[in-house]
Amino acid sequence: MIKILHMYGDMLDLYGDSGNMEILRYRCRMRDIPCTVDSYSLGADMPDFSSYDLIYIGGGADLEQQHISADLLRCREGIKAAYENGTFLFLICGGYQLMGKYYRDADGNDIPGLGLFDYYTVAPSSRKMRCISNIAIRTSITGKPVEVVGFENHGGQTQDVKTPLGEVLFGNGNCSKSQYEGYMEKNVIATYMHGPCLSKNPELSDYMISYCLSRNGGSGELQPLDDTLEKQCRQVMLDRLLNK
Ligand code: GLN
Question: 93 CA distance to ligand 1 centroid (A)?
C-alpha cells in the first residue's frame, strides 16, 4: 500500500504536472499495488503529513506561488517531520523552489521557502530572461545512469545545490546554461522538468514506488512493466536534442 499526498494540485499544475500522479497510480495498478492519492489545498484541514509515503508538489507561476506561500509555511513543521521520518518528497519547479530558503521573483519579492534544503532561487528582473527549453539530463538516482527528458520554463535561478539530480545534456537546469539540474536525496527528487516529468521517464516512477514499498517493510522489488512506448518517446527526444 502506498499513500500519496498531492498538495495544491489546483494551483500548481503547469504543463500537466498532475499527470505525474496518474502515472504513479497507473504503474501501481499494473502491479496490483494499492495506491491512494489524497489532495490538499488552501483552506483544507491540516493533513497528518507523516502518515504519507510520498508528498508531491507541482510547479506554478509566481502569482500562484505567492498565493499558497502562507499556507505552505503553516504546513512547515508537518512536512519537515514527515521528510525526516522518511516520507518521499517529489517536487517540480515552483514546488522545488519553495522547499529551499526562498524564491525571489522577477519583481524582487521574496517568497519564503520552508528551508528544508540549503539552496535558494532568484529570478532576473527581466521577465524575458527565462530558461525555456526542452531538457535532457543524466541521473544516477536509480543506481545506474539513466537519461531523463522533460521541458523547463522558469525564471528562477537556483543556487547552492549540494546534490543535484543530474548533469545537463541539453537545456539549462538549475540556472541558465548550467551544468546541473534539480536536487536529490535518497527520499527527494526535485526538478525543473515538466512534461509531465514521469511520462517518458519510467525509471523515476519506479524508483519512488520501490522506495515507498521498502519503507513499508516490503522488498521494494518491482515486477517489470512493458515500457517500450515510454522509452521510444524518450528516444525520439534524445535523438532530436543530442543528435544521437
Ligand atoms: N514561477 C517560477 C519561475 O518562474 C516557477 C515556474 C515553474 O514552476 N515552471 O521560476
Answer: 6
| Strand order from edge to edge, sheet including 2-7 | 35-40, 2-7, 54-57, 88-92, 188-191, 183-185
Residue among 103, 116, 112, 107 nearest 159 (CA): 103
Q: Does the C-beta of 198 come closer than 6 Å to ligand 1?
A: no
Contact, 55 vs 7, CB < 8 A? yes
User: What is the reported pLDDT for 243?
Assistant: 87
Active site residue 197: no
Q: Is residue 238 predicted with pLDDT exceeding 70?
A: yes
Tell me, what CATH number does 46's domain have?
A: 3.40.50.880
58: Cβ below 6 Å to ligand 1?
Answer: no
> What residues make up the domain containing 43?
2-242
Q: The whole model's pTM is what?
A: 0.98
Told to judge if 35 belongs to the known catalytic residues of this protein, a careful annotator would answer: no
CA of 62 to the centre of ligand 1 (A): 6
Q: How many domains does the chain have?
A: 1
